Structure formats: C-alpha cells, structure tokens
C-alpha cells in the first residue's frame, strides 16, 4: 500500500479526493497511486475520509498500517454486504467454532468409551486363565 | 431499539444530532430516546450519520434493523479498539477455529489408533486358543 505525497504524484487517497497531496498527508504512506484510489473509495463511502483521518490521528504511527488495513477490510465487506458487512464473516466463524466444539465433545466421549472397552479387552486374557 | 419520531419526542439519533425528528426519520425505528443517543454517538463518530443514512436507504426496510445492529457493533468495537475494531474479534475466532481444528485432527488420529489397538485385543483370545 506504501505511497508518498512527496514524489510529486498524489497518493491514492488524494487522487480519489482530487486534492493536492502534501508531505504531511496522513493517508500517503498507506495508499499508493495505483490500487489506492479504489480502496480509498470504499473507505470514503463507508466511513468518510474525515472520520478515518481523525481515527488515524488518534492511533500511534506504528499502528496506523494495521488500522488502515482493518478499516479497508470493514469498508470493502460493507460494500459487498450492506446489511451485515464483515459481521457475516464473524457469524460464519462463530458457527464454525460451535460445529468444531461439537465434534470435539463427541470425539472426547468416543475416546472415553474406547478407554472403557479397551480395559475390558485388556483384562480378557487374565479372566480366561 | 424501537422508537418513533411521531410521538413528539425525538428519536435517539435526532436527540444526539439536536435536530427535529420527523415522521420520515430513517433512524427513528431503531434508536429510542433513552439508550439511542449513546449508540448513535458511536455510529456517528465512526461512520458519520450521513453515510449510515445513505446505507439504510439502499437496504430493504425489512433488513434495516440488522444493518443498524451490525453498524452499531462495528462502531462500538472501533471505539473500544481504534486499531483493529471488530476485526480483533475475527482474529480471535480464526485462532479458536485453528486450535479446534488441531484438536479434532489429533483426536481423529487417536481414535484411529484405538481402532487398531482394539482389533489386536479383540483377536487376542482367538490367538490364545
């Protein structure tokens, strides 16, 4: 995503917003001129450039890339699914967790039963003597 | 969340935005006067009232409640965790899925081994004859 507002060409965010990109542009390090505008378009549509700018200002510089990535993910998910957004992914994962927990419980019960059966078999030769 | 802009008192969104709540207010059915303003404050801070209003207009009326709930969830998560927002919950669930899948694989291997052992034991009395 890396870009810069100092090379003369605007970053992806400023390109989308059709504004001059300055050396202080908060978006420049994360939105390149090529793929940046499309990603920023989704972010702007869902969150608004101004809200995201304010958010980034309140996040340490070292964490801003992660903040941009997660905001971009949420924005793109909301455009794909306007009703549930990325929460649909969350629901799917919750269902998968519930299903796997059920499998684990079932197999634990099977293993416990096997242990009981195994014991009966292992003392069988002794009983036969 | 149910509220109305027709009873005279503004809905939670209009109360927060300090504006007159009309009978056509798109937020009124989902933001009551009591808890509504606090929830709407988070939504407004993260997404902006105008963006959410546009989003709801593009969602069928029957799905708007779910859209408001998921937007409220994302907004509140982003306020709690400005870097990862609700994506942190997603990461946690992905880790839980990976852990449970590991457990299932391990137990499947154990059950398969038990089946082999069980076979050896079950033919033991025959071999002793």
What does this structure look like?
Chain A is mainly α and 129 residues long. Helices cover 66% and strands 0% of the residues of chain A. Chain A has helices at residues 12-17, 36-46, 49-57, 64-80, 87-128. Chain A is rod-shaped, with a radius of gyration of 27 Å. Mean pLDDT of chain A is 89; it is low at 1-6. The A-B interface holds A 45-48, 50-51, 55, 58-59, 63, 66-67, 70-71, 73-74, 78, 82-87, 89-90, 93-94, 96-97, 100-101, 103-104, 107-108, 110-111, 114, 117-118, 121-122, 124-125, 128 and B 45-48, 50-51, 55, 58-59, 63, 66-67, 70-71, 73-74, 78, 82-87, 89-90, 93-94, 96-97, 100-101, 103-104, 107-108, 110-111, 114, 117-118, 121-122, 124-125, 128. Chains A, B: It holds the Pfam family LOB.
Briefly characterize the structure:
With 129 residues, chain A is mostly helical. Helices cover 66% and strands 0% of the residues of chain A.
């Amino acid at each position: 995503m890396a870009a810069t507002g100092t090379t003369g060409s605007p970053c992806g965010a400023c390109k989308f917003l059709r504004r001059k990109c300055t050396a202080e542009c908060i978006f420049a390090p994360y939105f390149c001129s090529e793929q940046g505008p499309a990603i920023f378009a989704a972010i702007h549509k869902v969150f608004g450039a101004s809200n995201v700018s304010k958010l980034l200002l309140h996040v340490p510089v070292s964490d801003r890339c992660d903040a941009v990535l997660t905001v971009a993910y949420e924005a793109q998910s909301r455009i794909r699914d306007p009703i549930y957004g990325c929460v649909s992914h969350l629901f799917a994962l919750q269902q998968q967790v519930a299903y796997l927990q059920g499998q684990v419980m079932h197999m634990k019960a099977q293993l416990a039963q096997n242990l009981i059966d195994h014991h009966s078999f292992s003392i069988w030769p002794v009983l036969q003597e």
